[in-house]
Please model this.
Amino acid sequence: MLKTTTLIKITAFGILIIATVVKLWTAVYLSPFLKFRNLNYIALSKVKKSLSKEKFSFVIASDPKRSQIAFGKIINYINHMKDVDFTVIGGDITEDSEKLEYALFMKKLRELRKPALVIPGNHDVRKAGRAWFYNIFGSFYFYVCHNKRLFVFLDDSDKRHPFAFEMDWLRKTLANCNQANLKVIFMHIPIYDPRKSNKIGHSIRNPRYADYLIKLLEKYRINVVFASHIHSYYQGYWGNLKFFITGGAGYENPKINPHFLKVSVNKDKLTVKPIKVKLTRIERFFDKILDHAVFPSILAIERNFSSLITLCALLILLI
Model:
């Protein structure tokens, strides 16, 4: 039988090799996906061309987080939809705002052959996540107003304390584009939780802000609001305000299959169709293993690489 000291050295050597391989993989393979800049600004010019057309379609996929298989299948579906002009990713593209999570998301996003606009979710702005989002995608909130169609993309990732200057910006934007015949709002966190009879729940936590926002959007006759955050599908009304909630671009809800929304626009008419993407039990299992075991391990190695290498080297040399 091997001695305890020998087993410790073999284990330390194995960890040393694994950590080095992971570090090289992240540095050489994943890091290049973090070099993209101002992607929302680039995509907006292409989206504006779509708004020039009488008829066009787009899709909304939200809350992919670290899902590789489910989100990958959704991307494949979208790529084969010839009548789709662009895509909106409704936030929570990461689980914990880690640098490598952004890299993993960008790796999948580059497989999408449609222009993509991305808004931040609450999971994307933790720690240094807000800086990473800004570096890659640009502004946290923005709009496009063209051909009497207004699309507004909001940042409500801070569900407790929304930014006052963003509300000033929104009020001015709605006033300046009040002549638009079609007005659409995109946000991550719903104004109210439809599972709680349109009350505070998995939604904006500040009731004063929620009420103010609904009154503001009703005042300017917004046609529809698209939100996510809740990992399922809902539609209904907040007052006179029509809403759709879609948070199914990952595998997380075991009761439903992943899904996204296809939105078709014909002049000033808007039609919404949920599209389900079936996952087998094996696909769910491997997506879960990647999310809960593989990626957390890689992230832990990346965060603690220097300490891990030093410890392993000391164990090999001194024991």
Notes: The chain has two domains: 4-28+282-318, 36-279. The chain is about 40% helix and 20% strand. The two ends are 18 Å apart (CA to CA). The CA atoms of residues 155 and 252 lie 23 Å apart.
